[in-house]
């Protein structure tokens, strides 16, 4: 293969380009009609009551941490196997990040490890949990909700990897990733390697109108111009003009542009087809590696994996990574455990703290996984992986 094969890549069609161009020809480049339309369509797709579009997934996490009341002294638990933003949002608000180990079968935050951590401390010590649908494998939010309710904690689901993912719980109900039915809030990213590309972009899904209204205000500096939301006591202006608005708390400018929303909305029309293609690619990898030393994660039948990533585990990971690069295949590693990052070591963590996460990291490799990967390209990737591990 002459063309480099990355681990992930966006797919832009002529329809996407036309949608963006239409916004550019119109009067509103930011906060125009595409924002609300994208929010509504995304909420419908995910099955969430409310959605708030923001400038990126990290901004989404930051606003959620604010809306959930994270501040100095707030303690929050998350997984070491995630993009660092899942943890950083707590630090932005001055809170403290705690980690718990993963379940090696799913590579997701282990609800039993979280329970042990919580129960080793007095009641009220922790405030919330941030589980992550890592690689697109849905977190068992039923189990996390039960644990959170027992201890009075909130849940923020990082669903960046899992739009369209779902699982059937033991109660027979199907839960969609990030639908904010079990989590208080959930977030998504529209970075080009994710399922839906906006360039930069993010979305928060919320289960209640109160959280939705708060997040809408935080997204725009903490300003409201809705008369019904103005806070008394009001002084100074007996007759408010149409210009009147209130800065009610310190927020940010985390708005998405209308061009980005139009691109996201256009991409969303193909979400089901693109997810189906990701699952097809995963099934082919599963079959190809089944009787080989290449370790894969094949979810049980009740799990609707969204396959942001297709991760294999192998003993000579560095060797395989380097070998694939010589073959123009750019596999990637997700993730270096967050607690081993120098910044989080400064916060009191150290290598060795979460041995299952660290062992997973030492063996993991994400193979090319994106809807436009061709069958020939995938076969080439499979052949090269097997050629390397077979020698
Ligand atoms: C991509 C990602 C984020 C951050 O999203 P950005 O849009 O890049 O800011 C957060 N969490 C996870 C798990 C991600 O994969």
From TrEMBL:
The residue ranges crossing the membrane are none
Q: Which residues form a coiled coil?
A: none
InterPro entries, per the entry: DegT/StrS_aminotransferase (IPR000653), PseC (IPR020026), PyrdxlP-dep_Trfase (IPR015424), PyrdxlP-dep_Trfase_major (IPR015421), PyrdxlP-dep_Trfase_small (IPR015422)
Indicate the enzyme's highest-level EC class. Answer: transferase
Q: Which GO terms fall under molecular function for this chain's record?
A: pyridoxal phosphate binding; transaminase activity
Which keywords does the record carry?
Aminotransferase, Pyridoxal phosphate, Transferase
Entry annotated with the keyword Nucleus: no
Entry's EC annotation: 2.6.1.92
Q: Which SUPFAM superfamilies match?
A: PLP-dependent transferases
Q: Which residues carry this modification: N6-(pyridoxal phosphate)lysine?
A: 194
Gene Ontology biological process terms, A to Z? polysaccharide biosynthetic process
Q: Which residues form the active site?
A: 194 (proton acceptor)
Pfam families associated with the record: DegT_DnrJ_EryC1
Q: What family is this? A: Belongs to the DegT/DnrJ/EryC1 family.
For this entry, the protein name equals UDP-4-amino-4, 6-dideoxy-N-acetyl-beta-L-altrosamine transaminase
Gene designation per UniProt: pseC
């Amino acid at each position: 293969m002459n063309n480099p094969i990355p681990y992930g890549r966006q797919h832009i069609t002529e329809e996407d380009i036309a949608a963006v161009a239409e916004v550019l020809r119109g009067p509103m480049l930011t906060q125009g009609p595409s924002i609300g339309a994208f929010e509504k369509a995304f909420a419908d797709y995910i099955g969430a009551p409310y959605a708030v579009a923001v400038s990126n997934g990290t901004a989404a996490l930051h606003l959620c941490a604010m809306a959930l009341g994270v501040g100095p002294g707030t303690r929050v638990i998350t997984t070491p196997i995630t993009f660092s933003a899942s943890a950083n949002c707590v630090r932005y608000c001055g809170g403290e990040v705690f980690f718990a180990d993963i379940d090696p079968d799913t590579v997701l935050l282990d609800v039993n490890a979280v329970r042990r951590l919580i129960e080793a401390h007095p009641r009220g010590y922790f405030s919330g949990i941030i589980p992550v649908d890592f690689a697109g494998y849905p977190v068992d939010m039923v189990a996390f909700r039960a644990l959170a309710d027992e201890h009075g904690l909130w849940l923020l689901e990082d669903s960046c990897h899992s739009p369209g993912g779902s699982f059937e719980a033991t109660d027979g109900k199907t839960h969609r990733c990030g639908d904010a039915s079990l989590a208080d809030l959930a977030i998504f990213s529209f970075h080009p390697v994710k399922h839906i590309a906006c360039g930069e972009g993010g979305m928060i899904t919320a289960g209640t109108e109160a959280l939705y209204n708060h997040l809408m205000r935080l997204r725009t500096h903490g300003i409201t111009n809705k008369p019904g939301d103005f806070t008394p006591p009001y002084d100074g202006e007996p007759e408010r003009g149409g210009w009147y608005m209130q800065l009610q708390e310190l927020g940010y400018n985390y708005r998405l542009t209308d061009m980005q929303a139009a691109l996201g909305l256009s991409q969303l029309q193909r979400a089901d087809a693109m997810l189906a293609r990701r699952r097809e690619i995963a099934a082919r990898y599963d079959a190809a590696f089944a009787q080989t030393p290449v370790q894969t994660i094949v979810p049980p039948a009740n799990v609707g994996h969204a396959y942001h990533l297709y991760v294999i585990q192998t003993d000579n990971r560095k060797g395989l990574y380097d070998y694939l690069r010589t073959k123009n295949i750019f596999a990637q590693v997700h993730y270096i455990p967050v607690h081993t990052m120098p910044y989080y070591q400064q916060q009191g963590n150290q290598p060795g703290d979460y041995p299952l996460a660290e062992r997973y990291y030492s063996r993991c490799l994400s193979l090319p996984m994106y809807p436009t990967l061709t069958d020939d390209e995938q076969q080439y990737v499979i052949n090269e992986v097997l050629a390397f591990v077979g020698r």
